[in-house]
């Protein structure tokens, strides 16, 4: 509801259309017909089978959302400091390790997902292949977490990359991102990472 995955966050839609008299019929028509352009180039799937009553219920709920009520509680974002192999320091907003070189459950789950599905195109250990780019280079070139998740979920049909929305959840894609981020920084070595649970 409160963050972008492929399409916009529902609270962002509510914020954009709040106070517009024609918001409900406009959004109902958009949901029914689908399309792209208002929130980016990724097209929204049409929903021609929804009844007018269902469309009205969906739009009514979306428009009832308030960004302030969905915002996280105030407080400092936790930061995790790491020393890279070249001696420079970096900070992440998620933990890579629980102790020593044992990765977190999320990072290990990301490795499992990557090793089961993504490696076929992106290479073992996220090193790239003839089919798809080295994701470590993509992240080091400035690809953000949100861009990684959005691109992965939407796919890139023009380049042969399938959509993973509906297969991976946003949480699972975040786990994959955390694993690849650790690889891109040189903090997670090639192969199966050490884990307290695996």
What is the 3D form? Answer: elongated
Helix/strand structural class: mainly alpha
CATH homology superfamily of the largest domain: Cytochrome c-like domain
What's the architecture of the largest domain in CATH terms? Orthogonal Bundle
Strand content: 5-15%
Biggest sheet, spatial arrangement of strands: 1-2
Order of helices and strands: HHHHEEEEHHHH
Determine Rg (CA atoms, Å).
20 Å
Mean pLDDT: 86
Low-pLDDT stretches are: none
Question: What attributes does this structure have?
Answer:
two-stranded antiparallel sheet, mainly alpha, two-stranded antiparallel ribbon, Cytochrome Bc1 Complex, Chain D, domain 2, 2 domains, 198 residues
Structure in a nutshell:
The protein is about 45% helix and about 5% strand.
Commentary on this structure:
This protein has 2 domains: 10-70, Cytochrome Bc1 Complex, Chain D, domain 2; 80-184, Cytochrome Bc1 Complex, Chain D, domain 2, CATH 1.10.760. The protein starts with 9 loop residues before the first helix and ends in a 14-residue tail after the last helix. The protein has 8 helices and 4 strands; from the N terminus they run H-H-H-H-E-E-E-E-H-H-H-H. Helix 2 (23-33) crosses helix 3 and helix 7 crosses helix 8 (170-184). The protein has helices spanning 10-17, 23-33, 52-64, 67-70, 105-122, 135-140, 145-154, 170-184; strands at 80-83, 89-92, 97-99, 102-103. Strands 1-2 form a two-stranded antiparallel ribbon. The mean pLDDT is 86. It has 198 residues and is mainly alpha-helical.
């Amino acid at each position: 509801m409160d963050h972008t995955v492929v399409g916009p966050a529902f609270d962002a839609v509510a914020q954009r259309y709040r106070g517009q008299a024609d918001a409900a019929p406009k959004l109902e028509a958009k949901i029914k017909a689908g399309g792209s352009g208002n929130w980016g180039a990724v097209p929204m799937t049409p929903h021609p089978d929804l009844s007018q009553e269902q469309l009205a219920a969906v739009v009514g709920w979306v428009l009832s959302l308030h960004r302030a009520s969905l915002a996280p509680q105030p407080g400092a974002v936790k930061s995790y400091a790491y020393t890279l192999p070249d001696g420079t320091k970096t900070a992440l907003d998620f933990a890579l390790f629980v102790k020593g070189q044992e990765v977190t459950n999320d990072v290990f789950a990301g490795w499992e997902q990557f090793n089961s599905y993504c490696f076929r195109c992106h290479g073992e250990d996220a090193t790239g292949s003839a089919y798809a780019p080295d994701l470590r280079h993509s992240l080091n070139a400035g690809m953000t977490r949100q861009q990684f998740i959005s691109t992965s979920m939407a796919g890139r049909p023009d380049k042969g990359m399938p959509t993973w929305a509906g297969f991976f959840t946003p949480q699972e894609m975040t786990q994959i991102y955390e694993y690849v981020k650790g690889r891109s920084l040189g903090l997670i070595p090639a192969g199966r990472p050490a884990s307290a649970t695996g």
